[in-house]
Each structure stands twice: as structure tokens, then as C-alpha cells.
Amino acid sequence: MNFFALPVHFVQAPNELKAWFLSLLASFGVPAWLLVVISAVLVIGTIIGVFLVLFALTSVLERKILARVQNRYGPNRVGPCGLFQPVADGIKMITKEDLVPRSADKIVHFLAPVVMMVPALMVLAILPYGRDMVPAELDAGILYFFAVGAGTEVAVFMAGWGSNNKYSVLGAMRAIAQMVSYELPLIISAVVVAMVTGSLAPSAIVTAQGDFAFGFFPGWYVFTPWGFVACLLFYIAALAESNRCPFDLPEGESELVAGHLTEYSGFKYATFFMAEYVGMFAICGLLVTLFLGGWQAPLPFLTIVPSWCWFFGKVAFVAFTMIWVRATLPRMRIDHLMTFAWKFMLPMSFAAFLAAACWHYAGRGPLAWALSAVIVGVPYLVLGNHFTARFSVTNRRYQFSE
Amino acid sequence: MNIPGSGIFKGLVVTARNFVGSYFEKDRLTTEQYPEERPTLPENARSFPFLVYDGTDPETGMRCVSCKICEKECPPQCIFIVQDRDAAGKAIKRPKVFNIDIAVCMSCQICVEVCPFESIRMDNAYELSAYDRFSSLLLDKSKLLKSNTYYRSIHPTEAAETDGRIEADRLKKEAAAAAKAAAAQKAAAEKAAKAVEAAPELQKPEASA
Description:
The complex is a heterodimer of chains A (about 400) and B (about 210). Chain A has about 400 residues and is mostly helical. Chain A is about 65% helix and about 0% strand. Chain A contains 16 helices and two strands. Chain A has helices spanning about 1-5, 10, 15-25, 30-70, 85-95, 105-120, 140-150, 150-160, 165-195, 200-210, 225-240, 255, 265-290, 305-330, 335-360, 365-390, and strands spanning about 210-215, 215-220. Chain A has a two-stranded antiparallel ribbon with strand order 1-2. In chain A, helix 6 packs parallel to helix 13. The longest helix of chain A has about 40 residues, at about 30-70. Chain B has about 210 residues and is an alpha+beta fold. Chain B has a domain at about 50-165: Alpha-Beta Plaits (2-Layer Sandwich). In chain B, strand 2 and strand 3 (about 90-100) form a beta hairpin. The model of chain B has no long low-confidence stretch (mean pLDDT about 85).
């Protein structure tokens, strides 16, 4: 135990550092109310800084990963291995002309990127980044996340409507349809976790996943049948919510130019881009919190690694899989997208809901495992085969040449 | 019963294999890192025409005789030639001005095909961008003249064939000259003999070659 107690200062480094800095300020006679403000600003500044750096890194790494999947090198000109590419992109974006269409609704057009950015940053407040590292300890943190996160939909529609451009409006309408449809499976699959844990507080959910079965197997919710299904549903819905491939219809370059982004350039476009990526990280963070054990280490002896390292490592992994999926799947058609949301995702999320309830009342043991596996497995096979039967692959028969 | 959604995982495996493979198998990456790595041009690669000269001095070794056939044949009319003249105003078989506007040239190689003196040939230099689009892209004689050695280095097969033809022409010409000289000598000898023969008897009808 002494061995694990030793690196506490290192594990809690960010918290320790903040406490030390605040005590230093207090010793200089800074009033208490100012210390509270400084403490908040420190936390907010750190989180925004970390996520902007993550955004910058991802913007270049995504391009490099996509390139590697396509057997290319990707950006490798600016700095070592092209890692300073975001700097070059940033300078380009800022120095570009900021165009506003003459017929655009100037105020709405201007406000849309701001409205997009604010919820993306606000939802970061409830994520538990590590042990005792929750910026805002809310009892209904999950509810707050979805309530605030829904603000991005308004922003997308503001951008589409304010631009006064047919492509923008079409993109925005698609975005609204898609986001509203996918919000449902997203929230239900999150509710499943809240139900099993008995709490809407993210830190309580992470703590509930902290024990190890048989002394080594992590008790993350993704390793239960209902949790696995809910995690996949949440992941798919998260892809749709953050407008990522294969659900990037709102900004489909090939048919809608860039959807709601058509009339944006320069810094406003960069803000949209940034908000989209920060939103993606936020939803990856929530996925990690709900299903992948948050900041918990995957094996007992790995708990000496700082908890926030695990959190960001898992977020990076989920973000990587999102890029991987983007490299693999083509964009969906709008009717397939809606069908998938309402006829497959929603019933499946109800099945996961039911399975989680059965799992809880069957005592969370082997029987509960089997029962919940059947409850999610059967609807999956039935629904899946029903939908894929229409697209079954057969050899083409040539009518005339045979 | 096949498992729905398995196709997506098959696809993910394919992309993952490409992603990992691109770090280990160098021949997967077909991109040339251009300024550092240069492509090896195929032998028949061509960009714009240049003028070939023999030997070391461009002015004396110039093959061009200013016949202006290329100027007339050039479809986009990017060649401009002025014939040189000596002090007396008599035309010399040499161009005074030979300009090619490579901003206009379409690399059709017709000038090369029509040239009877093996003088104009296609270059393969491709890094010709310039800051000034008028004077920098209008190549004059000094920029166009390149040695036969250079030609041999960029298009070895074609140059060898051309050199062979020139050498054969030269040998034929020499042989012809030798034959002509021999014939002239023979004719002179015959004439002399005839003169000797004709001296005693006048008007002897005989056809002599």
C-alpha cells in the first residue's frame, strides 16, 4: 500500500500544482474571493488550452492517418513530420478574407460560430478528467451535457439560415433532421448507464466502474452485454452528432458544397471547425466516462499511472477509431440515415435498456449476463438480417448473353 | 446465418492493414517527395526544343543553317529566325537570331521531325518556371544552344542513331568526293591522252565517257 501511496503527488499533479499556486497567492495577501476567481480561471484556461492543443494535434494527425490508410505520406512539410501544420493552417485561416454574403442575415451569420463554440466548450465542464478532477461537480452532469450540447443544433441551423444560400439551408435542414434523430439513441444509451449506476453524476459513474472482477478484469460497462451494445449505439450516435463520416451529410462536399459552412471563410470557418472537433472530443470524453471506465486504469497494477493520462489516452483511442471509421466508410444516403436511426438504432437502444434492467434484477451474475446477452442479441440478429436481406449480394445474372 | 454488420469490420480490417502496412512496406507509398527525390525520366520524355552544336564552341559548331523550315512548320508559330549576313550583305548559312517562345510552344516535336540538318532536338528539362513570363520564357540562341554531348546524355538511343546517320552521310559524301576526284583525274588523264592521240589524226569520231 505504501508503494501506491508514494506517487500520489505525481498522480494528482494538476491539482497539487493549482493548490500550491493558490497558497502562494494567499501568502502574498490576495483576498479570498479573488482566489476563487483565479482558481476558476486556472481550471477553465487549462481545459480550453488542453483541448485546443488536442484539436490542433488531431487536425494534423487525422490527415496523416487518412493519408497512411490511402498509402500516402500526408502533410510532412511544415516542421518535423509536418507537426507544425496547424500553425500554418491557423495563419492561413486568420489572414483569409472574412466574407459575408450581401443578402445574409448579418447578425445570425456572425453569431452562428459563436453559438457553435460555446456549448462545445461548456460541456467540457462536467467531464471527470481524473481522480478528483471534475471542474463542475454536478449531480445531473449527464443531463447537463445533453441539454447544453443540443445547442450546437441551433448553431448549425443559424449558420444555414443566416447565410441565405440554398446549399446552406439544405445542409442545415439535414443537420437538424440527423441530430434530432440520433439524439434519441444517444440519450437512451446514456440513460442505460445512469440507470444501472443509479446516478447521473459522471464521477459516480466512473467510480462505479472502478472494481476489478477476479482481481484483474476491469468492471467497465463496455464489458457487459448491454453495455457493449449501448456503447456501440452511443458511438454511432456520437459520430452522427458530431457530423463525422459516415454521417457527414450536413456538409457533404460532393452534393452540398459544404452545407452550412458554404458561406463561411477565414476565422469564422476556423471557429466552426474548432467547435466541431472540441465537440467530438467532448462526446468521446463522455463515451469514455460512461462505458470505458473514465479515468480508471485497465489493470490493477497500472493505477500508478496518473488517472488523467488514462482518461486522455482513452479519448485519443476513441478519436482514433473515429478517424479510422472515416477512412473506411463512405457517406450514407439521407433516407438510409433516417431509416437506420429510427428503425434500427432506436429499437436497439430500447433492447439495451431492457437488458440492463434485467441484468440488474437478475443479480448481476452469470445468469444476468446470459439473459441480457439474449435480450440484446436476438433483436440485433432479427433487425440486422431484416435490413440486410434487401441488400443481399448475389451473382449477377445476364439476361441476354447466356 | 451471417452476422449483420460484419462487412463494416471487414472494411475496417482492410483500412487497418493499409495503415500499418504503409509504415513497413516502402513500396506501398508511391508518392515521390519531389524536391528531394527526382523522378527518373523515361528516355523519350520531352519538354521543349533546343539547338544542337558539335564540338565545344556553340557558334562554330552550330548545325542550324537557318533554312527556316521549322519556323514555317511550327503549328503555334513560336519559332523566330533571322538569317545572318556578312559585311557585304550576303546571306550566311547561320541564324543571327533564333528564338523559341516556350510559353507558346506545345512540345509537338514537328520542328524536330522536319529538320533536315539534325539541328533541333527535344530537351527534357522541366523545371523552367520563371518570375517574368515574357523575357524569361522567350529562349534566345544562347539559351537554346546545347552540345551534342548533352543530347547524347539525355536521349542516348536517339542521339546514337542521329550520330550514325551523320557519320554515314559524311562517309558517303567523302566517298562521293573521292569518286568525283578520281573521275576528274581520270577524265583529265583521258583528255590528255586524247589530245595526244588527236594530234596526228584529226576528227576521229569516238564517244568517250
